[in-house]
Amino acid sequence: MNEFTEITVKCVWTTIKGRIWRAQYRLRSKAVRIQSKAIYRALKNENKPRIYRVEIRTGQRSPFSQRARTLMEVDLKLIYRAIREAIQKDMRGDEDKRVYTVAYKIYDIKAIHHYEVHEEQGGDSYMDICETYFKVDRDTIEIIEVKDIDGGMHAGQLHRLKEYGEQNNL
């Protein structure tokens, strides 16, 4: 009998040890790869000239702050939308002459909510007695103040916001 029989024993511990060894090998090779890339980048950037950003003080603001100060048509719409959201979230949003402050870009904008209602009879009636319901006469927003983060007033932006509100009946 020259036959050989091969017996395979699947041992759980052997399988787990093999997987652990493979995972450790992958982690070690990944760490070596990351380290060699870091060394390569350091040597590559060592000989490059360094550029430093220097701010020249001319008394004018940088273009970024000019961009931040500019309010486009979309910004005006978003400001009014933010004020409406603040009114809706407020439990006393149906009070007249309530002041709301909204922060947008570099501005803090204060607005007054004008809200007037009156009662009317109508709707369902029972024994010729009609129920009353409230009808809104006025629900507008008036912008009263526009300040930047430094506390400076911006009359131009205030005028633009008021004009936008009048044009769109806000």
Can you walk through the features of this model?
- The structure is a single chain.
- This protein has 170 residues and is α+β, with helices and mostly antiparallel strands.
- Helices cover 42% and strands 28% of the residues.
- The protein is built from four helices and three strands.
- It has helices at residues 12-46, 63-69, 73-89, 155-167; strands spanning 98-104, 107-126, 129-148.
- Strands 1-2-3 form a three-stranded antiparallel sheet.
- A hairpin with a 2-residue loop joins strand 2 (107-126) and strand 3.
- The mean pLDDT is 78.
Distance between the termini: 101 Å
Mean pLDDT: 78
Helix content: 40-55%
Output the strand order for the largest sheet.
1-2-3
Reported for the largest beta sheet, the result is: 3 strands, antiparallel
Q: Assign an overall shape.
A: elongated
| Number of strand segments | 3
Alpha carbon gyration radius: 35 Å
Instruction: Outline the low-pLDDT stretches.
Output: none
In brief:
By secondary structure, the protein is of the alpha+beta class. The chain has helices at residues 12-46, 63-69, 73-89, 155-167; strands spanning 98-104, 107-126, 129-148.
Secondary structure blueprint with pairings:
Elements: H1 12-46, H2 63-69, H3 73-89, E1 98-104, E2 107-126, E3 129-148, H4 155-167
Antiparallel strand pairs: 1-2, 2-3
How would you describe this structure in keywords?
3 strands, alpha+beta, 170 residues, 3-stranded antiparallel β-sheet, 42% helix, 28% strand
